[in-house]
Amino acid sequence: MVREGVRVSVKGERFVKAGSKVRLQEAYNLEYVQGKVACPKLYRYYQQGDEVVIEMEYVPGETLRAIWPTLDNDQKQCVVDNITNEIRKLRAFGSGDTSTCGINNTIVHSEWFGEFNLKDEQELNKRVASTVQFNPKVQALVQRLLPTSSRFCLGHGNLYDVNIIVKEDMSIVFVGWECMGFFPEYWDPMMLFILSRRDKKMIDQATSNMNVDNSILAAFHIILVIMFK
């Protein structure tokens, strides 16, 4: 499979990601979470000319997006419980401050909110609210709804239904670690909320399991409606 600047292939038991748009930071991130959370085993990574190559474990299974409609209620609950358990494992690694950044104070690359290395939660809130910048009143409302004293911890950063592999036994593996960093602890549930919006029941189960405050849900619901209207 190929998309601009990125090629992926399966070679035996290895999944290979390569290309000019692949960043070494993704390999560093995956290396950092080895043994901490359900993720592919990292075999090696290297630069080859202007390209980066990452070789990792191939994880058999289906993406959450593909498999969810086929699951019964008990299986869905099991999958949601497994997702929230893995998020809790990441949350155990606090950052010690309120900076939004990658590991070793690097820049976070967010598909939805751009690149950032921000000093505190207020700056992050401004960035999040800027997604509705064409409407100053709504932007101000989003900022008011977002918290300013969250605990910051390790987060996947781009947690949505194609970056979650569901195995045959309903266990799950997180893939796609290029956006990992230190975020407010609500961040991963909210990425799931925005990006896996296809099934409201799944969203409700996941956010309920993670005890996400209603004001945060309201803020991201506004963003969701505006971004995908």
Automatic annotation (TrEMBL):
UniProt cross-references to InterPro entries, sorted A to Z: AGP_Transferase, Aminoglycoside_PTrfase, Kinase-like_dom_sf
Residue ranges constituting the Aminoglycoside phosphotransferase domain according to the UniProt record: 30-194
Superkingdom of the organism of origin: Eukaryota
Family matches, as Pfam families: APH
The protein's name: Aminoglycoside phosphotransferase domain-containing protein
Organism the protein comes from: Coemansia biformis
Record lineage: Eukaryota, Fungi, Fungi incertae sedis, Zoopagomycota, Kickxellomycotina
